[in-house]
Amino acid sequence: MDKKLIGILTGGGDCPGLNAAIRAIVRKGMNSYGYEFVGIKNGWAGLLEKNIIPLEADSVSGILIRGGTIIGTSRTNPTKSPELMNKAINNFKELGLYALIAIGGDDTLGVASKLFDTGLNVVGVPKTIDNDLSGTDQTFGFDTAVSIATEAIDRLHSTAESHDRVMVVEVMGREAGWIATYAGIAGGADIILIPEEPFDINEICALLEKRRQRDRHFSIIVVAEGAMPKDKDTFFTKDDKVDDFGHVTLGGISEYVAKKIKEMMGWDTRTTILGHVQRGGTPTAYDRILATRYGIKAIDLVYEEKFGNIAALRCNRIDAVPLREAVSKNKKVDKEIYEIAKIFFG
Ligand code: F6P
């Protein structure tokens, strides 16, 4: 009897842990279930182009600690038109796939959910450094990004203090400020600005002034790229270009905050934009384990024919959660954790 063929793809922004998840899926799938695997290259683009590579024991050897993804990624969106969607469905069948495991955030898993609705065998694995996917307590990639951002904040403290400066650190987080909140708390930030809580620059300056009165003449502000002042209702963006999913490239909020503080208070300010450093390089031990657990669960779900689900973390157990639930809404920063962060403002 022919072995069942399973496709794996990684979509959206890359993140540390993708290779650990691929390795886990292939190792368990080959050894326990006798499946064969192909990597669909560069996210959904590979399905539209029938661009695949074989994934064997050798291909996944030594990749656990590597950042990025060995099968490439893209932000291609087949749900943009009915023609592309039909092509994706036909190619799935023509490639002889029994099932597809899509590793991604809300955009990639949104496509996976729609393909599942057409009757295809699809399972999801949640990843994104932004940690903004619903249905799961945490996505892999987030812990690594928080560690990198925390180290950067730690390093900025000494130079900020030496120069009596306000350092504004911009981290990723388009719709949700998870990285800013966690790295800000871990790094002892004086202010944390996130998309969920539009800010008033006067209040920020008042808090920093209070700090100076306590003889602390430097400050660290952590700002998520999607944060906004109360009197503005659009993101700070680099240009007008939008990707296949309608996202603009964010950037510029840190410059705005630094400039305003300089203008209003006269203090010396500097900005640091961490950018893709947060997404690059080796995953933390935590992310390697989480990605491995997700990968194992995903291939188990295929074996159990529990399609239309993602492997999700719930109270430290890995469970099946419907794809539809995972992509239904963006997961915002918990109010409770942001309240903890605020205790240390100023
Ligand atoms: O993966 C999500 C994310 O990290 C967002 O926080 C950020 O806005 C985006 O990726 C930027 O990714 P790219 O430069 O690859 O488009």
Would you give an account of this structure?
There is one protein chain. The chain has 346 residues and is of the alpha/beta class. It has 2 domains: 5-140 and 283-326, Rossmann fold (3-Layer(aba) Sandwich); 144-278, Rossmann fold (3-Layer(aba) Sandwich), CATH 3.40.50.460. It has helices at 18-33, 44-49, 82-94, 106-117, 142-163, 178-186, 201-213, 253-265, 285-303, 323-326, 335-343, and strands at residues 5-10, 36-40, 52-55, 99-104, 122-126, 166-171, 191-193, 219-224, 237-242, 248-250, 269-273, 309-314, 317-322. A 7-stranded mixed β-sheet has the order 3-2-1-4-5-12-13, with helices on both faces. Strands 7-8-6-11 form a 4-stranded parallel β-sheet, sandwiched between helices. A two-stranded antiparallel ribbon has the order 9-10. Strand 9 (237-242) and strand 10 (248-250) form a beta hairpin. Helix 1 packs parallel to helix 9 (285-303) and helix 5 packs across helix 6 (178-186). The radius of gyration is 22 Å and the shape is elongated. The N and C termini lie far apart (67 Å). 48% of the residues are buried. 6-O-phosphono-beta-D-fructofuranose binds next to loops. Residues 12-13, 128-130, 172-174, 225, 250 line the site of 6-O-phosphono-beta-D-fructofuranose.
